[in-house]
Specification:
The protein is of the alpha+beta class. About 15% of the residues lie in helices and about 35% in strands. It has one domain: Beta Barrel (Porin). The chain has an 8-stranded antiparallel β-barrel. Strands 6-7 form a two-stranded antiparallel sheet. A hairpin with a 4-residue loop joins strand 8 and strand 9. InterPro entries: OMP/PagP_B-barrel.
């Protein structure tokens, strides 16, 4: 992590000195590229703790789509701005239905969520193989590292109990319901739907043509919220909650049907060993997510985007 922080710091320090770097290295011509890509996304939190990461990768992978603008300032360092839409999901039932007694408290809890994130990020990139003087002289292949900061808007939702005819119900936003008593006297404040994340990753870049690159990247997001899944603390006193809807989404242990999938939980519940009464709905600790992405990039000719020259 210290190495990644050093790389990002050097990249960001290079931003205001781009012209000086160009004079110092007259062989390199700075250039820019725009990219579009998509891939998979994986959630890690109360419904899929790191100890069960394989289950998240296996059962509920979701998707991401996004675009980026990258400026290459010198042969090794670049800066990238990106905008992405990312879907995350988690489900106690899906993660534990095959072996409910392996994690009986989670299976009994029966919570789930879906969250569509909008992420705006600024990152520094370090390329291990340096660029050539011109874009058509860049390496055919290079690995790279990336580290940055991101602003993330999110809105966790869950399905209401299945309809009377057995069909799946609509998705309902959870934050306004205060499922852990947020906003009520004696409870925590409502959590924010805007948070900060630290993206760190590694990738591989290939030259396709003189004007196109292909990149494959995997990255990890540490967030500064424990509520991507709407789960963090204790079960509230049901009598304190403002509505029946809040009570329904707060404690779903008694529901015989898994609301996200419509599967019957009754038989599996009957096989559970003795489960102690649990007062905790979730555990303290921020949530994470992991992204994989395959993207294609178009190199903008240097003559189109030029940085201004500042003269003394």
């Amino acid at each position: 992590m210290r190495f990644l922080l050093t790389m990002l710091g050097l990249a960001l320090l290079g931003l205001p000195n781009a012209q000086a770097q160009r004079r110092a290295n007259s062989q390199f011509i700075p250039f820019s590229e725009v990219g579009l890509g998509g891939g998979s996304s994986f959630y890690l939190g109360e419904l899929s703790p790191p100890s069960q990461a394989f289950q998240s990768f296996s059962f509920l992978p979701r998707w991401n789509l996004g675009g980026s603008f990258t400026r290459h300032f010198n042969p090794h360092f670049s800066a990238r701005a990106s905008l992405m839409v990312i879907r995350l999901a988690g489900d106690d039932y899906s993660f534990n239905k095959d072996e409910p007694n392996l994690h009986p408290i989670q299976f009994q809890r029966n919570l789930h969520f879906r969250n569509d994130l909008k992420e705006l990020a600024l990152s520094g990139l370090y390329q291990f193989i340096p660029e050539g003087r011109r874009t058509n002289q860049r390496p055919s292949f290079t690995p790279y590292l990336t580290l940055g900061v991101a602003l993330v808007a999110h809105n966790p939702k869950a399905r209401a109990p299945v309809n009377a005819d057995g069909s799946l119900a609509d998705w309902v936003a959870l934050q306004p319901l205060g499922t852990e008593g947020q906003g009520l006297p004696g409870y925590a404040k409502p959590y924010s739907l805007l948070t900060v994340a630290i993206p760190a990753g590694a990738g591989l870049r290939w030259q396709l043509t003189e004007s196109l690159n292909l990149a494959a990247e995997i990255s990890f997001r540490y967030t500064f919220t424990d509520y991507l899944d709407d789960i963090s603390g204790l079960y509230p006193n049901p009598g304190d909650l403002p509505s029946g809807l809040s009570t329904t989404f707060s404690d779903r242990r008694a529901e015989p049907i898994a609301a996200r999938t419509g599967d019957d939980r009754t038989k599996a519940l009957s096989t559970l060993y003795a489960v102690p009464t649990e007062v905790r709905r979730g555990l303290a600790g921020n949530d994470y997510y992991i992204l994989t992405q395959l993207s294609i990039h178009y190199l903008i000719p240097p003559s189109i985007i030029k940085c201004p020259v500042f003269r003394r």
